[in-house]
Amino acid sequence: MSDPVEEYLARLFGAEDAVLASLREDADRSGLPPISITSATGRLLQVLARAIGARRVLEVGTLGGYSAICLARALPDDGPLLTLERDPAHAGFARRWISRAGLAERIEVREGVALDLLPALDGERFDLVFLDADKGPLPIYLDWAIRLLRPGGMVIADNALWGGRVLDPGEDDADTRGVREFNQRLANDPRLTGIVVPMHDGVGVGIVKQPGTEGRV
Ligand code: SAH
Ligand code: MG
User: Fold this and answer.
1) Statement: the pTM of the whole predicted model exceeds 0.90
2) 114 lines ligand 1 (CB under 6 A)
3) What CATH number is given to the structural domain containing 52?
4) Which domain holds residue 156?
5) Which residue of 14, 18, 73, 146 pairs with 40 in a disulfide if CB–CB is 3.0 to 4.6 A?
6) Please, are residues 52 and 152 in contact by the beta-carbon 8 Å criterion?
7) Is residue 125 part of a domain?
8) Which residue CA neighbors atom 3 of ligand 1 most closely?
9) Per-residue confidence at 96, pLDDT binned at 50, 70, 90?
10) What single DSSP character describes residue 176?
11) Crossing angle for the helix pair 4-13 and 39-51, to the nearest 10 degrees
12) Closest Cα to atom 7, ligand 1: which residue?
């Protein structure tokens, strides 16, 4: 982390407790890709979750459980978080650290490919959906999020700037197209009030409007 703004924010707001710091070290030692959210982004997720009074959260893309632990800590004591992960080694690692964080009762790591697992959630209601898995299907994940969120609920996507590739007209791979379309929907979908916060690799945020208010911001 060499960006001075990131360093400043991490120092001010993002201090990791012993569990999160050890999780990160263990993830590096164990060869997990170093792509979990930053500590400051964890703080942003917590502020957003608290702002909407989130009780029930769905995450897509667990990795080692870092963001799941951050989010669960912003929920009420009985607030559950369900997180979907296709890689069994990542899921196992995450479960171990979720236990060490004392959150095993509240966080469920469900193993499988997200697009296979999401249909079973149809009819359930979440307050917040955090998308942080593969980028190509982001528009489909957004459709699911809108379907599963309560009015006033929030969808958040990490990597909304995708390393700057979304701004580069020369980039046109499936992942970049997925992120671009997701951002366009945040900007233009009449059911959402959205923005991309340019923190770290970009954090896309959208609120699902109350029915009947689609014509308003
Ligand atoms: N949210 C995590 C980081 C997630 S990294 C954190 O900040 O701590 C992305 C994760 O998504 C990886 O573990 C990867 O295995 C998983 N993943 C990628 N594509 C997926 C899919 N289609 N379904 C479920 N999990 C997926
Ligand atoms: Mg990410």
Assistant:
1) yes
2) yes
3) 3.40.50.150
4) 4-208
5) 14
6) yes
7) yes
8) 36
9) very high
10) H
11) 60
12) 36
* pLDDT band at residue 1 using 50, 70 and 90 as cut-offs: low
Between the CA of 63 and the centroid of ligand 2 the distance, in Å, is 9
CA–CA gap between residue 51 and residue 49 (Å, rounded): 5
Ligand 2 center from residue 124 Cα (angstroms): 25
Q: How many domains does the chain have?
A: 1
Average pLDDT over residues 184-211: 97
Q: Is residue 40 part of a domain?
A: yes
Atom of ligand 1 nearest to the CA of 134: 19
193 bridge partner residues: 207
In a domain, 214, yes or no: no
Q: 37 in ligand 1 pocket by Cβ < 6 Å? A: yes
| pLDDT for 189 beyond 80 | yes
Q: Which amino acid does the sequence have at 214?
A: E
Q: Does ligand 1 come within 6 angstroms of the Cβ of 83? A: no
Kindly state whether residue 215 falls inside one of the protein's structural domains: no
CA distance 150 to 125: 6
Q: Is 67 in the pocket of ligand 1 (CB under 6 A)?
A: yes
Question: Cα of 119 to ligand 2 centre, how many Å?
Answer: 23
